[in-house]
Amino acid sequence: MDKRQLEALVKKNAAKAASATSVVKGFGKKYDVNLKDDPIDEASLKERERAEMFFKEMKPQQPPARL
User: Fold this and answer.
1) 33 to each of 11, 26, 36, 37, 40, how far by Cα in Å?
2) Model-level pTM?
3) Taking the CB of residue 8, how many other CB atoms lie within 10 A of it?
């Protein structure tokens, strides 16, 4: 591969990389269209946080490792 071919390849790859920097289609969307959007109001966020803490506390604790 000579210098001219290498420059052409670099230019081609740079153009390809520049076009790929746009946002990926469907980024941030859910996979299931039937799911509701995530709530953003304060009450729903607090309720979700409370539920996460509840289930986190309900998880069985692992016994300490023996040495």
Assistant:
1) 40, 11, 8, 9, 18
2) 0.35
3) 12
